[in-house]
Amino acid sequence: MKRKDFLKTGMAAGLGAIFPFSQSSVSPSPIIREARNIIFFAYDGFTWEDFSSAQHYNYRKTGKPLHLEKLFKTGSAGSMQSHSLTSMVTDSAAATSTWATGRKIVNGSLSIYPDGGELTTILELAKSKGKATGIISNTTITHATPAGWIAKQINRRDEENIAEQYANFKADVMIGGGIEAFDPELRSDGTDLYKPFLDTGYQVVKGREKFARIQSDKILATFNEGHVPYEIDRRFRGADAPTLLEMSKKGVEILDGSDNGFILHIESGRIDHANHRNDAGASLWETLAADETLCMLMEYTDHTPGTVLIVASDHGTGGASVYGVGERYRASSNIHDLLDRRTASFPWIMDQLGNSPETALILDVIEDATGVLVTLSDAELLQQAISGEINMPDAAAFPRQPIATLGWILKGGSNDDPTHLNINYGTTQHTAGAVPAAVYGNGVEVKPFGLVDNTDFFYWMTSALGINYKNPEMSAEKALQFY
Ligand code: ZN
Ligand code: MG
Ligand code: ZN
Predict the structure, then answer these.
(1) Containing H/E element for 405?
(2) CA 430 to ligand 3 center in whole angstroms
(3) Each residue's pLDDT tens digit, 309-334
């Protein structure tokens, strides 16, 4: 092709083609070989910027690096592109389904195409090979990220139906929030969804009491009606919740006893929730709680030959950026002292404020929970937001109100204000940028990688387990016909 022609065709393609997006490597190289156990640890809504913020905070407070930093440095690590079948910004349902099936689907669905064509997940394939299976999350256990590994559902929001699909699939280990999808008192159809598990030899636990003492090779443990409370509220406000570490340790202990190896999906699901709310304190503590869990998982892997640990974020959320402040940015790290004063999540703050707070209450509660004395005009901005009148700038990118207004008044409105965090959130939505990913193995061949696609992980896992399987593919153009 002549250079002129090349430029012409290149430009035509650039202007006209919305799809396809960049896909996975034509044939993703099998970077993992022959694993007996796979642990897939998902950080929902976690960006490299979130990593940087937590990394420096942790180092300053403890003098030690995050385990995540060690993992990125010692393991095979890189970045993952996350777009879904028809959108450059994915949601968690499409993202997790892609990990679990190797195919991109449309946002909002779980391991199913819009025409109803179901995909087969890695958990199903592993189970049919005799592996034990498990899902663990600090969101409701029926929430999108764990659900995509088992359920087939056009609409991710029908968590009661997802619980029914769990009752059919019967993973050996299910631990998370979300009593509401199983309990007959809370389910809309009054069905007791704990019963099919009890009838088939599962230990069923509601709440924390019996959890630590449980001895069983099959377990359904649900804590809290909805999501497991934020780590920041558990730690500083006495919220009743197990830690992600407690949940994960129990799951690993149980699955470790399986005859034929296991595959376990664990999710740190509330980094995403905190970032949606532009809540830097809650996000930090979720990341630190995930890191404590990661430490245990890396140690388990070190002691268990044939185990591979995959860690990845599914997409970014919130678009946080830590920006430089002060002369030559020298005051940038003051962020750590300000983050230290955060002792409650934004939802906890909003609960204290109720539906029509006086400005005096707003000032008090925010100072108590964040150490920041906001201005009267900022308190009025929040007061207006709570009453439904949104006056913060750029509100279009921050539809999650009134909580986004709280985030807005707590971030550094004026760049060198030493009382406000120098973290700016760009949005309350998901973002498109490539996110962190890593693979860590013991006695398992793990090759290095750079930029990968979220479809690749499925093929890594199937090749590790000696499974030869490809799900059917749907084009973006065809998927769009169903909207
Ligand atoms: Zn997500
Ligand atoms: Mg999630
Ligand atoms: Zn999200």
Answers:
(1) helix 403-410
(2) 6
(3) 999 999 999 999 998 888 898 888 88
Q: Using the mean position of ligand 2's atoms as its centre, give its distance from the Cα of residue 201 in Å.
A: 28
Closest CA to 99 of 75, 80, 74: 80
Instruction: Tell me, in angstroms, the distance from the centre of ligand 1 to residue 318's CA.
Output: 11
DSSP result, 83-94: --SS-SS--HHH
Q: What pLDDT shows up at residue 412?
A: 60
pLDDT of residue 302: 96
Distance 268 CA to ligand 2 centre (A): 7
Is the pTM value of this prediction over 0.90?
yes
- Confidence at residue 11, expressed as pLDDT on a 0 to 100 scale: 43
CA of 209 to the centre of ligand 3 (A): 30
CATH fold for domain 26-319+430-480: Alkaline Phosphatase, subunit A (3.40.720)
C-alpha–C-alpha distance, residues 50 and 45, integer Å: 9
Task: Report d(CA 443, CA 325) in Å as an integer.
Answer: 46
Q: Token pair of 184, please?
A: 């007959």
**Distance (Å, rounded) from C-alpha 337 to C-alpha 177?**
32
Alpha-helical regions (H) of 83-230 = 92-101, 122-128, 144-147, 159-169, 195-198
310 C-alpha to ligand 1 centroid (Å) = 16
Q: From ligand 2's centre to the CA of 72, what distance in Å?
A: 22
Ligand 1: distance of its center to the CA of 424 in Å? 20
Per-chain residues with Cβ under 5 A from ion ligand 3: 272, 317
Q: What is the pLDDT of residue 393?
A: 82
Do 86 and 135 meet the contact criterion of CB atoms below 8 Å apart? no
Report the residue count for the chain. Answer: 483
In the reported structure, the alpha carbon of residue 95 is separated from the centroid of ligand 2 by a whole-number distance in angstroms of: 9
Helix or strand holding residue 409 (H, E): helix 403-410
Q: Tell me the CA–centroid distance for residue 96 and ligand 1, in Å.
A: 8
Give residues whose Cβ lies within 5 Å of ion ligand 1: 44, 92, 272, 314
**pLDDT-flagged residues of the chain (< 70):** 1-30, 412-417
Direct distance between the N- and C-terminal alpha carbons of the chain, in angstroms, rounded to an integer: 39
The pLDDT of residue 14:
43
> Domain segments of the chain: what residues?
26-319+430-480, 334-424
Q: 37: closest CA among 455, 468, 467, 464? A: 464
